[in-house]
Amino acid sequence: MKRTYQPKKGQRQKEHGFLKRMKTKSGRNILKARRLKGRKKLSA
C-alpha cells in the first residue's frame, strides 16, 4: 500500500513557497508574522 504523503519539491514550492507568499497581501502578512516570531525558515 502506498503512503498518503508522496512529496514533490516543485509542487510544494508552488503551493507554499516564498514567491507565492509574497504575491498576496495575506501571504506577506504570514511572512511578517513568522519573522516577528523569529522563525528560522519563513516558508517551504
Helical content stands at: 55-70%
Radius of gyration equals 13 Å
Number of strands: 0
Say what the CATH topology is: Helix Hairpins
**Termini gap:** 27 Å
Topology at a glance:
Elements: H1 9-16, H2 18-23, H3 25-37
Would you write up a description of this structure?
With 44 residues, this protein is mainly α. It has one domain: Helix Hairpins (Orthogonal Bundle), CATH 1.10.287. 61% of the residues lie in helices and 0% in strands. It is built from three helices and no strands. The protein has helices at 9-16, 18-23, 25-37. It is elongated. The model has no long low-confidence stretch (mean pLDDT 95).
Index terms:
44 residues; mainly alpha; Helix Hairpins; 3 helices
Describe the structure concisely.
The protein has 44 residues and is an all-alpha fold. It has helices at 9-16, 18-23, 25-37. The mean pLDDT is 95.
